[in-house]
Amino acid sequence: MSKLPIISGMEAIKAFSRAGWIPHRQVGSHVVLRKEGSKVTLSIPKHREIKPGLLRGLIKAAGLSMEEFEKLL
Q1: Contact, 19 vs 61, CB < 8 A?
Q2: Which of 8, 19, 30, 55 is the most buried (most CB within 10 A)?
Q3: Residues 6+ apart with CB under 8 A from 10
Q4: DSSP secondary structure of 16-55
């Protein structure tokens, strides 16, 4: 498994948007993303750095592989 890059919340939101996830609403410093036809929502903090465990969980919940996500960055 490749090492995840250290990215900001905004970079993660842009990458997930390229995969079809749409910002639905913002609650405080978290942006909630939804995808057409999916029951899953992604809550991404708009922090300077997202911790690797959280990023890995978001990628898994989105149904992407690490390699697919890295290509979206």
Answers
A1: no
A2: 55
A3: 46
A4: HHHTT-EEEEEETTEEEEE-TT-S-EEEEE--S---HHHH
Total domains in the chain come to 1
Q: What is the CATH number of the domain that holds 54?
A: 3.30.920.30
pLDDT tens-digit series, residues 25-69: 999 999 999 999 999 999 999 999 999 999 999 999 999 999 999
Pair 63, 71: CB distance under 8 Å: no
For 1-24, the pLDDT digits (tens) are 568 889 999 999 999 999 999 999
**Positive/negative CA dihedral, 53, 57, 59, 60:** positive
Residue 57 in tokens: 């969980």
Residue 59: which domain range? 9-72
